[in-house]
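Lab notebook: predicted structure, single chain.

Context: the supervisor wants predicted structures on file for every construct in the current expression panel, including those that have not yet been purified. This is the next one on the list. No modifications to the sequence; it matches the entry in the shared construct table.
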Amino acid sequence: MRRGSPNVKRDAYERDSLVRAAILIPDTDPGLYRFSKDYVFTSSSKAAGVIKDGNASGPSLWKEVKGGNSLKDYLTSR
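Prediction complete. Output recorded below exactly as produced.
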């Protein structure tokens, strides 16, 4: 999202850096960015925060398309 939560965003610097590097580029939808290429984040929460444009808990938000299990479910079942 180009503009998510109005609260302080801990991942704003990362998102802005990806925009400057043209890894995140404007989408045809004016409210969104899209990735121009694959990018590996240092944490699931940082990835979720950049995509959501707000603070986010990656383990809780990242879910399988089939089944709906979260990353947190996977990590706690190990």
